[in-house]
Amino acid sequence: MDKNGQGFPKADRVRSKPEIDRVFRSGARYSCKGMRIHIAQNSLENSRAVFVPVRSFAGSVQRNRAKRLAREAWRLDKSRIKPGYDVAFVMFPDEAGLPEYRSRMAQLLRKAGILAGMRA
User: Fold this and answer.
1) Which residue range is the domain that position 56 belongs to?
2) What span, in angstroms and rounded, lies between the C-alpha atoms of 115 and 111?
3) Alpha carbon distances (Å) from 38 to 35, 46, 109, 115
């Protein structure tokens, strides 16, 4: 268990197919280069996320790396995200690293109005 609250426990994940479908169907959508998000409100006291890479990645290594980077960016900044939202991140193939993922995620969450801080 992560002692400083910076982990990514199951309670912070959108896990079931009906929940994921709800976010994609009824959620607001925001895009930037390399990433798109869908956001829907939930009735919980925390915000949850799911990470979905598109199928056009060159292979499983690149696809899984994109998911790892996106999860780490979410984990680092989740304390600044307003509670009560389900967020689906859709990643597209590119050669971005963690700083780019964090800045894209912050940009999209700021567009959606659920990011508290102004740091990118």
Assistant:
1) 12-112
2) 8
3) 10, 16, 10, 14
Q: Quick one: residue 115, left, alpha or beta (phi over 0 = left, psi -120 to 50 = alpha)?
A: beta
Q: Model's pTM, two decimal places?
A: 0.86
Domain count, the chain: 1
**What whole-number distance in Å separates Cα of residue 48 and Cα of residue 52?**
14
User: Tell me, what CATH number does 82's domain have?
Assistant: 3.30.230.10
Q: Helices 98-112 & 60-77, crossing angle to 10 degrees?
A: 60
Contact partners, residue 94, CB within 8 Å, separation at least 6: 33, 34
Spatial distance between the Cα atoms of 99 and 14, rounded to a whole number of angstroms: 24
- Residue 11: the pLDDT is 83
Q: Give the type of residue at 75.
A: R
Q: One digit per residue, pLDDT tens: the chain, 120 residues?
A: 455 556 778 888 899 999 999 999 998 999 999 999 999 999 998 899 999 999 999 999 999 999 999 999 999 998 899 999 999 999 999 999 999 999 999 999 999 999 876 444
In a domain, 6, yes or no: no
